[in-house]
Amino acid sequence: MKTVLKISNLNTNEDVISIREVVGSNEGVIACEVSLSKKEVNIVYDDKSVTIDKIIAEVEELGYSIN
């Protein structure tokens, strides 16, 4: 599966690193690309191993707002 998440409060390189780390730590995430300029995260994942809802919940736990 491939998903794009828009994150309204993605503002710094530290945000990019934090999001990349939390998304990438999930088993089943194949690729994760965070774009600071577009304020979005492109995720390729195996939906048999992880759900997008779990990924979203983890990103929101860090304090980010997903549109």
From TrEMBL:
HMA domain residues: 1-67
Source superkingdom: Bacteria
Cited InterPro entries: HMA_dom, HMA_dom_sf
GO terms of molecular function: metal ion binding
Name of the protein described by the UniProt record: Copper chaperone
Organism annotation: Clostridium sartagoforme
